[in-house]
Amino acid sequence: MVDMLGRLLRRRGGSAGHYDGPVRETELWERLDKHLGPAYSRVWAEQNVLPGLGRTVREAIADGVSFKRIWLAVWEALELPAAER
Question: Which residue, 28, 8, 26, is CA-closest to 17?
Answer without folding.
Answer: 8
